[in-house]
């Protein structure tokens, strides 16, 4: 009994730190789920329409109230399964790192520092995932190809506009139709099932952060697995973990496989996204070899257009622009939760 109490005293601080970080993650996840797509944000689609002049207007008062109460979410079975799998894999990695490798460690500061670092990166990764999944990627208003809207455009003689026959909307430049979202998306890069959403003009920043943080926690998990294997082989397997040696080995092998696959995939995606942003060319435009008819924003100009403003810590913060007060007001007001 005394032996158990001594072990608990040694591990209690690390357990409390890990529990606090996980609780903060769950609270932030619940807040992001009710995300901050206010009517002003959603209707930038109309305000920034390239075919509209500064004095033109588009009457959308009938749908504005409905859109203000909704959160962007794609009800796609495959995408929802992939999104849930992503969360479960991150939670599994956090469990193995915290309870199999760090809590049994005899080095207190090694456990605390690595535990806090890994859990913070996991919170940032999952928050970036939610922001990517629940942010409107830049959908063109559905059904705006009406005669009244055409008249408001004040087109010049001979000027050509394009109408999408699938969603009955006027397609801005660089917009493409997504068959899963069933909408035309501005600067659509691709549809990613792992985030259950398109990656487009308004959520590409969060997708880049998601791939970056997943790659970081994958690399961190692999490094910790290497140290753990070394310490267990060097000492006694029964002392390096609270689990039995076979269970410990199986859990760590699965974590190594998961970490290697996720690190490879997300590192490649991160590099691809940064390359696309610096060249101001989406993946669809690259695959279709579309000749640019727009003024390209290369390198830093492209990065600033996606991440916003001058380089700062806000670039790597998935909570930038997140307003808790606005969410609390909307949660009290209630309303439907899904926009698609």
TrEMBL record:
Protein's membrane topology: Multi-pass membrane protein
Cellular localization per UniProt: Membrane
Keywords (A to Z) from UniProt: Acyltransferase, Membrane, Transferase, Transmembrane, Transmembrane helix
All residue ranges annotated as the Palmitoyltransferase DHHC domain in the record: 163-289
InterPro entries (UniProt xref): Palmitoyltrfase_DHHC, PFA4/ZDH16/20/ERF2-like
The keyword Acyltransferase appears for this protein: yes
Enzymatic reactions: L-cysteinyl-[protein] + hexadecanoyl-CoA = S-hexadecanoyl-L-cysteinyl-[protein] + CoA
Enzyme Commission numbers on file: 2.3.1.225
Family the entry assigns: Belongs to the DHHC palmitoyltransferase family.
Domain writeup: The DHHC domain is required for palmitoyltransferase activity.
Protein name: Palmitoyltransferase
Organism: Phasianus colchicus (Common pheasant)
